[in-house]
Amino acid sequence: MKVEQIYTGCIAHAAYYIESNGEASIFDPLREVQPYIDKATKDGAEIKYVFETHFHADFVSGHLDLANKTGAQIVFGPTAKPGFEALIAADNQIFKIGNYQVKVLHTPGHTMESTTYLLVDENEEMHGIITGDTLFIGDVGRPDLAQHVIEDLTEEKLAAHLYDSLRNKILPLPNHLIVYPNHGAGSACGKMMSNETTDTLGNQKATNYALQDMTKEEFIEKLLDGLTAPPGYFPKNVLMNIQGYESIDDVIDRGEQPLEADAFEAAANETGALILDTREAENFKEGFIPNSINIGLDSNFAMWVGELIPDIKQQILLVTEPGKEEESIIRLARVGYDHAIGYLKGGFDTWKKANRETDQVNRLDVDEFLANFNNDEIKVFDVRKKSEFDSQHLIGAENTPLNQINEYLAEFPKDKKFAIHCAGGYRSMIASSILKQRGWDNFVDVRGGFDEIKEHKDAQVTAYVCPTTLL
Fold this sequence. Notes:
Elements: E1 2-8, E2 13-20, E3 23-27, H1 34-42, E4 46-51, H2 63-70, E5 73-76, E6 87-88, E7 94-97, E8 100-106, E9 115-120, E10 126-132, H3 155-170, E11 178-181, E12 199-200, H4 201-207, H5 216-224, H6 234-243, H7 248-255, E13 258-259, H8 261-271, E14 274-277, H9 281-286, E15 293-294, H10 301-308, E16 316-319, H11 325-333, E17 340-344, H12 348-353, E18 363-364, H13 366-373, E19 379-382, H14 386-391, E20 398-399, H15 405-408, E21 418-421, H16 426-437, E22 443-446, H17 449-453
Keywords: Metal-binding
Organism: Psychroflexus maritimus
GO molecular function: metal ion binding; sulfur dioxygenase activity
């Protein structure tokens, strides 16, 4: 018997692979399904089921492609109404995977179809629970996402359901069970998730705020406190997971169209496609195609794409490091951006060799930044999250969170020089590229961001205050 967590850090997502006696199942797979198929092939196993804990909001699941490629049956919990063939399991229904059993526990609250799967081993001993977004390590799923798809499902109603699910279905289970959640720290599906991605249920009973003794009213108040608006792409991903979507193979084929500089420029002009540059910030700042946006692959790429590109059907032309074209297309598709239509063959060097126009971002080290910008006359914009800014910031800086940058554009002066920074330099370069695209040119970006600023002897920063929420 094998239970394996397959964790993808850039979107803080955990899928699960279970194999027993030549049969396997995948829980909450990502869009690119070949790695799961390869794993089963290596084990000499047939993928029998694709279990979904709920209709996901933060990524597009690979259930359809996996079922089409393997013949596996898709399984959802009670009340799910997918727009494709699937088995809708009953509460307490049991599925066999080799010598292993999977028991369905309907746990509505994060969404109404949310389901926890209880794993029972070959000795008929309970081993663990795959909890989806019902229970995280240190947290539980936010109850405000489903209402963006079904209007009368208020966050208060869902929070009340989650209270009942946790107390009636999860807390009575034995302490030794291993909790296998769908997400870890960094996901927007909760607000206080741990960096740990598994734990015992007993330890969660002792330490997780949501599992402590309280009334339903107290639980609802605690759960809703500090929630911010979910990313705009979440409802769109939910609908794709409910209604179905195009095969990832077709998405890759469409995006993997190599274009020379002439063809790339023509495609941009003819289609109105967004030019998305996925190189790391240090390379982007040295030179880029005018009007392109930088969202680097080396961090939370998919999340920031979803936050900053409002139209999920936006056509996209890619500029990547050579060899990173397919990875960029796949990571776009993970959050439903299926309309990459080509990439610049050979990367940015091709553009330069063709003597096309380029642009740059002026990026300063912390020493030079503090020597020139540490005064009251020059504005400094901090694009970190509000909770990060509130915990500690450079005195005099203004907080303009990156995910709200379009709402703050009027704050950035066009007639005076200013500086922009984030925590380490990734987000500030995204913001810099957006400002460049919108016509700003009189600013500098700070290399190393606040992480280096606060350590500098000349920096004047506020005292550190522990943030109350991670959102």
